[in-house]
Amino acid sequence: MLINAAFALTTVGQFLLVLLLATLFLSRSTCKRSPVLLNLLIICLLSTIPQFLLMYADQVYDPKPSFGLCATQAALLGGVRCTFAVVSLSLVIDLLIGSQGILAKASRPQYLRAALVIIPYITFLAFCIGVAAFGAAHPEQVRHAPNDLACTLHNPSFITVVQIFIAVIVVLTLGLETYAILRSVATRRHIPAHPAWHRRPPLLSFSQAARIVAFTCLQALLLILSTLRTYVHDDAVRIADILLQALMPISTFSIFGLTEDCCKAWKSLAQQANPRRWARHHDGSSWSPAAAFGGRSASPAKELVVTITVELTCECESDYDPSVDSHSDLESKPGGPAKDADADADSGCRRADAHARSPFRIHFPSPVFPF
Prior knowledge:
Layout: H1 2-26, H2 35-46, H3 53-56, H4 67-100, H5 102-105, H6 109-137, E1 142-144, E2 151-153, H7 156-190, H8 206-231, H9 235-257, H10 260-273, H11 275-278, H12 289-292, E3 304-308, H13 322-326, H14 337-357, E4 360-364
Antiparallel strand pairs: 1-2, 3-4
C-alpha cells in the first residue's frame, strides 16, 4: 500500500515537472528562466527514475532481485542524493551573483553559468562511480530491505560520508541564503541615503528568497529523516522518509512552477483547448477574453509598443512685412533679400513641422527573471 501510494505521488510529480519544463521551454508568454533553475528542474525529474527501477522491472516485492539491477539502482541513488544538494547550492550561488550584479561585471559570464550547470553532474558521476565500485567489491552489502522501494548500499562508513557531505552542502546553502537576504535588506535601507544612485541595484526579491529557502528546508528535512532512518529502525520514520521522497517532485513544482506567468500560460492553453467553456458570457457569467474574441483566447502580449505622434504648430515670422514695405522708401525687389529670407523661413517651418509629425515608438520588452 505504501509503495503504491509513493509510486502514484511520484508519477503525478513527474507529470507536473514535464508540464512545467514544456511551458518554460515552449511558451512565448513566460519569462525567461535562469539555466541553473532549468537544470534543477531537469535533475529533479530525472532523480525520480532510479528509486523506482525495481517497480518498473516488477521486482519491488522480490526479496532478492537481480544483483545487476539492484547494484545499478544503489549506485544511481548514491549519486542522485548528493547531486540534489549540489544543484540547490548552485541555484543559490546563481541567485546571489545575479542579485549583487557580479555576473554583469564578469568578463565572460556564460562560463560562470556553465560551471554552475556542470558541477552537479560531476558530483553525480563521482558518487555514482564510488558506490558502484564499492558495491562491486562488497556485493553482500548491496541489499533490498523488506517493504522498501529501492536497493541501497548498507555500509555505515559510506553512508556517514554521504550524509556529512550533504549536511555540509545544506548548511552552506542556508548560510548563503541568509547572507543574500540580509544584504538585500541592508541595501534597501540605504538606497534613500544615496541620491547619487541613478539606477536601482539588482536586489533579491521576497519571492525568490521564499522559494529557495522553502526548497532548501525540504532538503534539510529529507536529510534529517534519512539520518534518523539509518540509526533509528522505526516504521514511522521509514514511512515519513518514503512519503517525503515521493512528494519532492510535487513540492518542487509547487515552489518553482506556481508563478504568475506560468499560470497565465496554462489558462491561455485551457482557453484554446476548450473555447466554448470560456466563451459563456450570455448566462450571466463574467466577461472573458475568449468571449470577446469570438471563442478564441488572445495570446498574452510579450512586449508593449507605444506609438506617440507629436504635432506642433510652427509660426514663422520674417523680417519682411508687406504692410510696412508699402510705406517704405526702400522697396524690395522680386528677387531681393527680403523674399529670400521669407522663403528660407517657410522651408524651415515645413521641415520642423514634418519632423514634429513623425511618430516614434517605445518598446517595453518582457523582463527576464531567474525564477
